[in-house]
Structure formats: structure tokens, C-alpha cells
Amino acid sequence: MIDNKTHGVSAYLGQSAYKILDAKRQVGSCIKPILVYAPALNENVISPSTEVLDEKVKIGDYSPNNVGNKYHGYISIQDAVKNSVNTVAIKVLSYIGIDTGKMYATRMGFNFDEKDDSYALALGGMTYGENLKTLTNAYTTFANNGKYSDAKFISHITDKNGKLVYKHEPIEKNVLREDSAYLMTKMLEETAKTGTARKLSDITKTEIASKTGTVGKKNKNGNLDAYNVSYTPDYTIGVWCGNLDNSQINISGGNEPTDAVKKFVNKVDVKKSTFGVSDHVQEAKIDLLEKEENHRIVLASPNTPERFTETALFSRFNMPEEISSNFTKLDDIQAECKKENNNGLLSFEAKRQIKYDIYLNGEFYRTIKDKNSLQKLTFPLKKEENEIKIVYKFLNFEDSPIKEKTFKLINKNAWHKEIERQSHSDKWYI
């Protein structure tokens, strides 16, 4: 446990016959915020809302898998962080470059071998790994608004007469902007609430951010290493479970290591319960339709109904500039109407933000709304001349422009049947 303010190691507990503090191990997914996501935030490449396609990836001979070989399609960076999605981490590292990611991690205390130059780094694949103190210390950067300092075990030294001969004076250096550290913290808070570290979700006396990591071997049932690194406004806590002889354990980061953090936080004295808010982070409403349908992050127009917006956090240095054209211009509908087997067939691509009222021969027929798919309607042609009209407008927008499209269908069969009916019912007299 490291005190975030003094950068001093406040507690250290281990059960081993070996010097496990110095042992370097593969750190697994715990490296993702350090090497990938925080650097990408700081380089203005991503925001928590950014959508990335979660899919099977292959880079040369390197073909990593997600846990359980599950792929989710487009997901946000926030969801990728909290669920520790492997392929998204690799893609984001490719956006900023391996050298950039290593530069940030090095400034947070990590040491890399010259052979550490592949995308496996995004998942913690290092030649030698890192020790638990270095890993835990890196996370104090997020708790300290982007400032890093090497944590020490010794706070001060006195001589036999009580005279102070050494005092630890931490030297902080800026690694991340304040807004980047804050956004990383918000994503890791969500990890502790609903993600891989959700066992911490019932901690109420303090805000807590967390990341888990699990290291296994391909084609093996057990794991080699399991981690949880969590931080509150006061302390940063790192837990590792494993065996130095690499015998396997039936433990993952979201289980015993997270339980250990939870028990510790519930016992430790907490002075400050909430993380500070960055003045350089802003809330903005984005267009939910653009995000879900086109995977683009754009600002919602002032006309956008609340149900089609989402509130998102952005660095003021990386705010979206484009404003969505949804709810500002009502495009002409692309529809087709034809006769088929003495019936009318109307087809058009519906958009869920638009309400469509269908009229048949001047009378209301039906309404279609909240649909985002091809609509096909079949209706009887009872007259020789039939009028089909679509009146459409934006949904939940009172001042929406209104447009309409009209079709006319001639049904000769209906005309012949009407003549035949009249010929049988009319009587003539001389």
C-alpha cells in the first residue's frame, strides 16, 4: 500500500520464503491503463465514449484472444476498460504506437527490455515483467492528477542522538495531463462498480478505482499470476497472487486479489472519500443515433430529443466539434409502392427517430415508429384508383418539419368487379 500524498510505502505484507518484493512477474491486463489507455487519452486519440470494433485480430504471427473467445462488435473504450477486452487494447496501442506507449509507462516507473517491442505488451507480455511495487506505484499517477514519484520505504533517518540525517522528499514529475488522469480514474471507477473488479461495488465510505489482471498459459486450465491494483483518493493498493516456481493457481484477478483489496479498504482509515474533479473535463451531449448506428462520436444538435442523446465526458482538449445533422434536416423518404396479387405493397426503410403515419384513400391506416429496418405493408386495393400517403416527421420533436409522399395505384380488377356487380343488380324495363 502506498500513500498517494507522501509517496511512501505504508504497508507491505507477503507470505513467502523468497524476496517476492523484488520478483518480476508478467503483469497481465494491469498494464493496459499504464501503457495503452492513459497515453491514448493524453495524446487526444480516444475519449471514454470512443467506439472500437472488438473482433479477432492478427498482426503477423501474433493472434491474441479475448477471454472465452468472445467478441462484442463495436464497444466503447469505457466498456473495453471495465471488461478488460484484449483486442481493443491492442488496437488502441496501434493507434498511438508501441514506442509512445512505452514512453509513458517508463515515465511511470516501468522498465522494458530491448526485446519488448511487440503488441503483446498491450496485454502485459514483457520479457521479464515488473515487480508489484513498481506496478502499484504506477497507478498513483492517476490518483495524483497525472503526477508520478517513486515511492520509498523510508520516510526519514535519525542518528543515535535523534538528529535528522535523511528525509524522503518526493520529487513529482508530470506524466499525464490532469484531465487524462481524471478520465482514466472515472473509467477505473466503473470497473470497480460493474466490471471485472465489481466485488468492490459495495464499498461506500470512499470512491475507489480498480483494475484486475490475470496471466495464464495457452492450453492450460490454471493461471500463473492474478492481480488487483486499486486506489482511493488516499491510498493505492496492489495485490499479487502466484508461485515463483510457476506452479499453477486456480485464482483470477477478479477473485481473491480483489477480495483482499476489499477487506483492506474496509479496515483502513479513510480521510478523503471522493476524487477531485478536473476543471479541464467537460460534459457534453452526444448523438446516440450516430454512436449506435455509425459508431461516430458527434455532438447532439439542439433539436435532438433527450432519448436520442447520451451524456459523455471529454477533455476540453479533445472535444468533438462536429454537430449531428439528425433532427436538423428531414430527408426525403425512399419508398416504393406497387401492385401485387390484387393488393398494394408499400416498402420503405424506417428510421427509429422518425414517426410514419400511413393513410389509405384518405383514411388513417397505421403508424410506424421506433423501427430501424425495412418495413413492408400489404393492404387491399378496394377501389379502381387507390391513394396511399405517408406523412412523416421526427419523433418526440414538437417543432419537427413534416413531409409526405403519395402513391396512386390503379386496380383494374376492382373496376371490372364493380361493373359486373352493377350489371347483375340493375333491372331494365320496357
Could you walk me through the main structural features you see in this protein, from its secondary elements to its overall organization?
This protein is an alpha+beta fold. The protein folds into 3 domains: 2-153 and 173-267, DD-peptidase/beta-lactamase superfamily (Beta-lactamase), CATH 3.40.710; 281-315, no CATH class; 335-424, Immunoglobulins (Immunoglobulin-like). It is built from 9 helices and 20 strands. The strands form 7 sheets. The protein has a 5-stranded antiparallel beta sheet with strand order 2-1-11-10-9, sandwiched between helices. Strands 17-16-19-20 form a 4-stranded antiparallel beta sheet, with no helix packed on it. It has a 3-stranded antiparallel beta sheet with strand order 14-15-18, with no helix packed on it. A hairpin with a 2-residue loop joins strand 16 (354-360) and strand 17. Helix 1 crosses helix 3 (86-96), helix 1 crosses helix 4 (98-107) and helix 1 (32-42) crosses helix 6. The longest helix is centred in the middle third of the chain and has 17 residues, at 178-194. The chain is elongated, with a radius of gyration of 31 Å. The relative contact order is 0.11. The model is unreliable at 415-430 (pLDDT under 50).
Q: What order do the helices and strands follow?
A: EEHEEHHHHEEEEHEEEHEHEEEEEEEEH
Shape type:
elongated
**End-to-end CA span:** 115 Å
Strand count: 20
Tally of domains: 3
Helicity level, as a percent range? Answer: 10-25%
Give the integer mean of the pLDDT values.
Answer: 91
Largest sheet: 5 strands, antiparallel
Main sheet: strand order: 2-1-11-10-9
Enumerate how many helices there are, as a single number: 9
The class by helix and strand makeup works out as alpha+beta
Per the CATH scheme, the topology name of the largest domain is Beta-lactamase
Question: Architecture of the largest domain, CATH level 2?
Answer: 3-Layer(aba) Sandwich
Q: In what range is the share of β-strand residues?
A: 25-35%
CA gyration radius, whole angstroms: 31 Å
